[in-house]
Design brief:
The structure holds two protein chains of two kinds. Chain A is α/β, with parallel strands linked by helices. Chain A has a domain of 106 residues: DsrEFH-like (Hypothetical Protein Ychn, Chain: A, 3-Layer(aba) Sandwich). Helix content of chain A is 38%, strand content 15%. Chain B is of the alpha+beta class. Chain B contains two helices and four strands, in the order βαβαββ. The chains are: A alpha/beta, B alpha+beta.
Chain lengths: 155, 76
C-alpha cells in the first residue's frame, strides 16, 4: 500500500476550531497517511506549549446554548470564560479528547507541524513559546508537500 | 465469541479516540493476532469498517449488545 498524503492549513485558534485539524491529522496518520499541518495566523495558538484556547458565543450564533442569551449580554466580561469552561466540561463528559491529548497523539504519530514563519514574526512569538518539534517555513514550504498530497484541507 | 489475543476497552471515549487507541494497540501486536475492542461511541461502527478497509487489518466481527459495541480486528 503506497502511502497517501494529507496537507492541512490551520488558520484558527479558538478552542472549537483547534479540533478539526488535530482530529483529522491524527486519524489520517492512524490510517497510514503521511500528514503535514501548516499553522498560520491564529492557528499558531494551537502550537503554544502553554495552551490557553478560548471560545465565545459572540459572533458564533450557531453555537447551541443551554438558554437564549441576548447578543449584548454575550459581550459582558466573564462570558467568554464561562463559554469556554462550559464547552470543556461538556467535552469531558462526552469523552471527547482534550486538545492537549490530540496534539500529543499527532506528535506520537509523527504528524509534521509547520509554523508559518511570517505570522510567527508578525505576532512576535518566540520559538521557546512553541512546541520544540515544530518546524518553521513559508508558503513555498507548504506547497512542497501539498503539491504531492492526495488531500488538501483549509481550516 | 471468537478468541482474541489482546483487548482494548474504549468505553466512554469519543471520535477519534477509539480508532487511535486501536491503531496503537495493533501496532504492538504481531501479524495475525486478534484485538477485541469495546466501545460506546455509535460512530465507531462505521469508523472501524473504514479503518479496517484502509489499513488492511481485517474486521472479523462487529456487533452491538446492551448499548455497547464489540469489534474483533485481526492484524494484517
Amino acid at each position: 500500500m503506497s502511502e497517501k498524503k494529507l496537507a492541512i492549513i490551520a488558520t484558527k485558534g479558538t478552542l472549537d476550531w483547534a479540533y478539526p485539524p488535530l482530529i483529522l491529522g491524527s486519524t489520517a496518520a492512524a490510517l497510514g497517511y503521511e500528514v503535514e499541518i501548516f499553522f498560520t495566523f491564529y492557528g499558531l495558538q494551537i502550537l503554544k506549549k502553554d495552551l490557553d484556547l478560548k471560545m465565545s458565543s459572540l459572533g458564533n450564533p450557531a453555537m447551541p446554548m443551554p438558554m437564549p442569551v441576548p447578543v449584548l449580554a454575550q459581550a459582558l466580561p466573564g462570558m467568554e470564560a464561562a463559554m469556554t469552561s462550559m464547552m470543556k466540561a461538556k467535552m469531558q463528559k462526552k469523552g471527547v479528547a482534550s486538545i492537549e491529548e490530540l496534539r500529543e497523539l499527532c506528535i506520537e504519530a509523527e504528524v509534521k507541524m509547520i509554523a508559518c514563519q511570517m505570522t510567527v514574526d508578525l505576532f512576535e512569538f518566540k520559538p521557546s513559546e512553541l512546541l520544540d518539534n515544530v518546524e518553521y517555513g513559508g508558503a513555498a514550504t507548504f506547497f512542497e508537500f501539498a503539491g504531492e498530497s492526495d488531500v488538501n484541507l483549509y481550516m | 465469541m471468537a478468541d482474541f489475543d489482546s483487548e482494548l476497552d474504549a468505553s466512554g471515549l469519543n471520535c477519534p479516540l477509539p480508532i487511535l487507541r486501536a491503531k496503537k494497540a495493533l501496532a504492538a501486536m504481531e501479524s495475525g493476532k486478534v484485538l477485541h475492542i469495546i466501545a460506546t461511541d455509535p460512530g465507531a461502527i462505521k469508523d472501524f469498517e473504514a479503518f479496517s478497509k484502509q489499513t488492511g487489518n481485517e474486521l472479523m466481527e462487529s456487533r452491538e449488545e446492551g448499548g455497547k459495541f464489540y469489534f474483533l480486528i485481526k492484524k494484517g
